[in-house]
Specification:
Length: 197
């Protein structure tokens, strides 16, 4: 299968972060990664979005039933932003998400989440089919097993997604285009990411 070529530099001004289904009950099903490290990576992504003023969307699934609420560390990182609750495994079937993406108007999506083989992979592949450019943050994705997670990430890569990790995203963003230097906050994020990677 041919992979889609991703054109252009990933910058804070041309992307959207989508953090998929980081929920309390789903987190307890994860066995592919160390859970505290996984949560740290998700929080680092949220902090990167906040630091660089990147639009961010939180999603949940079955928040009132099997999924549970958004993880509290992510809620603390964005206390004024409510997640969009979905009723389907793919976030693209949710009209609020479609409307928000259309409103923001950016075509590069940085995605990560729980249940990589289900919600994340399905959503990422459908985004690629819709003409978006997708970057998957592999060290912030997790599944019921490592084998399931690895297969899901590979499936997204084969479909055209670009794999990244938290520290590599910072390498894309760390030099401000105007000042050409790292801000103190970005330096702190880099240090935190290196310590937990």
């Amino acid at each position: 299968m041919e992979t889609q070529t991703i054109l252009g530099q990933l910058t804070p001004g041309n992307c959207i972060f989508i953090l998929v289904n980081y929920q309390t009950k789903l987190a307890f099903t994860i066995n592919s990664k160390d859970l505290p490290a996984l949560i740290d990576n998700a929080v680092h992504l949220a902090k990167i979005a906040r630091s660089f003023e990147i639009p961010l969307i939180f999603t949940t699934i079955g928040a009132e039933t099997f999924g549970g609420p958004l993880l509290s560390p992510l809620r603390l990182a964005f206390p004024d932003q409510d997640p969009i609750n979905c009723n389907n495994l793919s976030i693209w079937k949710n009209r609020r998400i479609s409307a928000e993406l259309k409103r923001i108007g950016r075509r590069k999506l940085v995605m990560a989440g729980l249940w990589t083989n289900f919600t994340v992979a399905l959503s990422a592949i459908q985004a690629l089919q819709a003409g978006y450019e997708v970057f998957i943050v592999s060290d912030a994705c997790a599944e019921l097993s490592k084998a399931d997670n690895d297969m899901a990430v590979q499936r997204m890569i084969e479909a055209g997604a670009v794999p990244l990790d938290c520290s590599r995203i910072l390498l894309h963003f760390q030099f401000d285009e105007r000042s050409k230097c790292m801000s103190p906050l970005t330096s702190d994020l880099t240090l935190e990411t290196n310590l937990t990677s």
